[in-house]
Inverse folding.
């Protein structure tokens, strides 16, 4: 057995505030990590600190400049037990994203539509919750009941364990 980590977060940036208003949920962002220290997380989000419109597949560094600037980012970290085979599938999928990092874009149009529960898919475009949900579904870890996966949906995963709640930088 292996473990993976789902990080639900709220940074307080303008985009996160807008998402929170519409979803009425405490968290607006979802990432996945393969190690408990969550120093390296994978998601879809902004590629540049000061430009929320240039986004795509990203590596998030817990100790990087984004979280230093938004140092009050709140989070809940979920731990999931997965089989060795499921873990290998996630690693393989992440390698595909890493290898083709430049083709993936953040789906701003899709995000707006998802807020209103409208599923809209474009090839190589994604939002954070859809990306992490896709990894879990493709790895046979969890099947979501909705076509529009939102951060709140990750709390519905059975057998998850909440291992931390608080400021991300304090973890």
């Amino acid at each position: 057995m292996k473990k993976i980590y789902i990080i639900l977060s709220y940074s307080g940036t303008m985009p996160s505030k807008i998402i929170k208003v519409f979803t009425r949920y405490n968290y607006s962002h979802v990432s996945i990590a393969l190690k408990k220290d969550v120093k390296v997380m994978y998601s879809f989000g902004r590629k540049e600190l000061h430009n929320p419109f240039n986004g795509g597949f990203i590596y998030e560094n817990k100790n990087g400049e984004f979280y230093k600037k938004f140092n009050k980012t709140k989070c809940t970290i979920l731990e999931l037990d997965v089989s060795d085979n499921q873990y290998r599938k996630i690693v393989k999928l992440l390698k595909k994203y890493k290898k083709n990092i430049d083709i993936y874009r953040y789906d701003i149009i899709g995000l707006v539509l998802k807020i209103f529960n409208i599923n809209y898919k474009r090839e190589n475009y994604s939002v954070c919750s859809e990306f992490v949900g896709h990894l879990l579904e493709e790895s046979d870890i969890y099947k979501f009941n909705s076509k529009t996966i939102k951060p709140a949906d990750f709390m519905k995963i059975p057998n998850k364990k909440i291992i931390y709640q608080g400021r991300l930088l304090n973890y």
